[in-house]
Amino acid sequence: MNEQRRQILQMLAEGKITADEAERLIDALERAQPESPPVAESHPRRRPKYLRVVVNAADHPGAEPTRINIRVPLQLLRAGVRLASLIPPPALAKVNAELDRSGVPIDLTELKPQHLEELIDQLGDVIVDVDEPDTKVQVFCE
User: Fold this and answer.
1) Ranges of each domain in the chain
2) Is this structure's pTM higher than 0.85?
């Protein structure tokens, strides 16, 4: 039993907090701590900072090849999600309706900062390569 849990139970025994308060505190402790200790990796994984999109394409033989290199800071995505949470619900409904009408079925009311963090945590494993004759597209995190 960890020290924080022991302190909560001690406060409960001394009558400083109620059983409901103790339960809420213990639940909060469990949410704050990982369920199992992280496995030590030989190379600790860095948290990605950028979403990178690279396109190399030869449009026409003899012409200059097209090169696109986009580096989007993931912090920009985080800020965008926080800003979206400030939009009033009636305005969000209008935006969602316009997005849907344009063929983009995204519900901005479901976009929450904690969901974005879960997505960003998984982005470190994402690498997409598309190879076609004379074209190469890469999407990855760094």
Assistant:
1) 3-32, 50-141
2) no
